[in-house]
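Kindly inspect this today.
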Amino acid sequence: MSQTTATDAPSATRHGAAPTLHAHRRRSPLRWIVLGAAALIALLMLAPFWLLVLNAFKTGADYSTNGPMAWPETFSLDAFAGYLSLVNFPIALWNSILISTVVAFAGTALALISAYAIGIGRVKSSGPILAILLLATMLPHEALLYPLFYGAQATGTLNSVWSVIIVFTVLQAAFGTYLLSSVMGTVPKELLEAAALDGTSRWQILWRIIFPVLQPTLAVLVVFFFIWTWNEFYIPLILLSDPSSQTVPIALATLRGQHSLDITVINAGSLLSLIPTLVFFLIFQRTLSRGVTAGAVK
């Protein structure tokens, strides 16, 4: 009897494995189609960056003769030299790094503290407060220009990077507070009550319990706030009219107004402006992926 069972087991295994292999073969064409579609989309998304790199290494005569789609006759650095001669790129780069870094960490810290008061502290009328914060993030920046300009002028922070830092710290913190407060609202009350019974203060609850749980989300906010602030243009354009305080996007935009339009120079400047954010994203890519998938893993 046992001999028959032992003989039938491999047969059953083979019969059970056959449908799985057939199903895998049936799914294979679909997987190749999805992979091909993803590769095509990736190529379409990379096409503008490829043209940016090609035209950044062309001369003005090469671009005028052969157009933007042609391969450069010779890879030249004339466009980069022309851009660096027209724009004080090191100062603009330092201003952008300073503003984006301070806003990213200060905005996240302010959002954490504010969300802790709303989500854990159970502040009265927390619903209307969150609605106001959400509306603040949806408000067009054009509507804020006049009060921000006159406020910076009255406080003596006009043409200072700190005026932009203060503005964007508050704006980014409003979105961060709305996001983090909804996450903190899901923390079990039993955990907080047990910590309170053990004599843990509210600050200790924040840093020892809430902060470790929200660390992946906070890392994502830091990355997003840095990139969003780096790409901001309209408010810094109004508040930072002095060339010594301008950011990289503003310095790049001045090429269109103050000097003759040279496409190769603009491409070179755009490439130099893109490299810092690309490096920042590559450094924190693993942190970003961990933060995005943290909720799914839990």
